[in-house]
Amino acid sequence: MSADLPLEEPSRRLSEPAGARDSDAWEGSFLPWDVYFAVVWVATLVFTLGAPSSSEPVRMIAAALFVLPAPWYVWVGRAELLRQGVDEQRALRYIGGAVLLFLAPAILVGETRIATFALVPQCFIVLRLRLALVFVAVINIAPVLGWAALWQPDGRTVFFQSLFALVALVFSTVQGSWIIRIIGQSMDRAALIAELEASREEIARLSADRGALAERERMSREIHDTLAQGFTSLLMLLQAVDSELERDLPQARRHLDLMADTARQNLAEARALVAGGAPADLDGNSLPDALRRLAARHGDTASVEVTGTARPLAPALEVVALRTCQEALANATKHAGPDATVTVSLAYTEGELSVSVRDDGCGFDESVPLRGYGLNGLRARAAEVGGHAQVRSTRGRGTTVAVRLPLPAPTAARPPESSTPAPCPSVPADEPFPGRLPKHAPDPLPEPDRSRT
Question: Could you write out the DSSP letters of every residue in 192-203?
Fold first, then answer.
């Protein structure tokens, strides 16, 4: 802190980021100063009235004059001290008036100079350092010079009084300068703390915004992989039914049954999303069983192969594997062609889970940038659990979507599930898989009468 830096500057810097809190703290801590000034004023008045070196009339006059600084402090000084010299002109006016009111009794009675212990701190509180040192010198030296000129004591008394004034001046200068530097450092640190608190609040806000954005992205992926695909299937089936009502009524009825099952599945997925639970296919089922149910709904052109020792995994990993298959199967339905076969491979190893969906459809050109949300969302979903996804395709040779996910080491506490896949029900390509829905998703529609088909 330089000698020219006013004490009020760090105070103003502190008050800008921290607001009224710092002002309240300063007012709350100023009461000890009030008590200190009052004690010094009363002690000085007592010493002035009892000074043995002066006559009674002189002591009474000095005491009467020393009463005046008290209202000057109450009416003017305290407010300036609380403002810490923000208005330099008003601060100079107060300190100048206080020094003038002090000099008269201090020249009359030497004991009145005890009041310097109250005046010196006020100079350092409201004035710049250099101005404060000037007034401190006046407060310590001027009373001795005036007292010596007025009463003309012997040389020995003047020497000791001057020596006392010099010691008081040096002490006031050193202590005052040190205190000002400490106060400046404290205020700078308080300003830094206020800035850090503001930064912390900003970080918390940005973190909340980032969390909300991540949640929106997650919900977008969930809706795209479940509800949006289900509604797309319903629209395609509706178009098929509309074209079959006049020429192939049994096929139209089969498609209506498939629409009902698709609607039930969509309802179960919607309830799972709202409840924040596991996807409908994973509710009460293992991952291999869920993939078999998913493949069965795709038709008899889809099959599931499981290798390795199947075991329960973290829900997040199973959800990524299931959503990968859902997205890949939906893309195969839309783009690979009606006669394309699809193979879903699920491989458990000691440290990795591999899921791949391969079709022998028309494929696409990998050099063309991917459009749409599905495959990009699939990659983002895999990255969230530390895995990675890869899409390989060649025109006329099909498409392979592969996801590799890291796994924890298998625990010996649970017996592993059998790696032999359960037999898949034999259903026609256009027939829905008659699997049960989760307990929390009751059938909203009546079961179709399959005898009609």
Answer: HHHHHHHHHHHH
| Amino acid letter, 158 | V
Pairing of strands 342-348, 388-393: unpaired
Alpha-carbon distances of 259 from 236, 245, 266, 295, rounded to whole Å? 10, 15, 10, 17
State how far the Cα of 93 lies from the Cα of 80, in Å rounded to an integer: 10
Cα–Cα distance measured from residue 186 to residue 193, given in angstroms and rounded to the nearest whole number: 10
Q: What is the pLDDT of residue 2?
A: 40
**Helix, strand, coil % (nearest 5) of the chain?**
65, 10, 25
Q: How far is CA 360 from CA 170, 303, 332, 341, 427, in A?
A: 96, 13, 9, 6, 21
d(CA 240, CA 251): 9
CA distances to 242, 256, 299 from 452, in Å: 18, 12, 20
Cα separation, 332 vs 330, in Å, equals 5
| Beta carbons of 392 and 399 less than 8 angstroms apart | yes
Q: How far is CA 102 from CA 69, 86, 117, 409, in A?
A: 7, 24, 12, 85
Helix axis angle for 116-126 and 129-151, nearest 10°, is 150
CA distance 365 to 314: 35
Q: Is the separation of the CB atoms in 255 and 244 below 8 Å?
A: yes
86 burial class (0-12, 13-18, 19+ CB within 10 angstroms)? middle
Dihedral over Cα of 30, 36, 38, 41: its sign: negative
> In sequence order, which residues have a C-beta less than 8 Å from that of residue 388 and are 6 or more positions away?
379, 382, 403, 404
- In this prediction the pTM is 0.45
More confident residue, 24 or 165: 165
Per residue in 107-143, pLDDT tens? 999 999 999 999 999 999 899 889 999 999 999 999 9
| Diameter of the chain measured on Cα atoms | 136
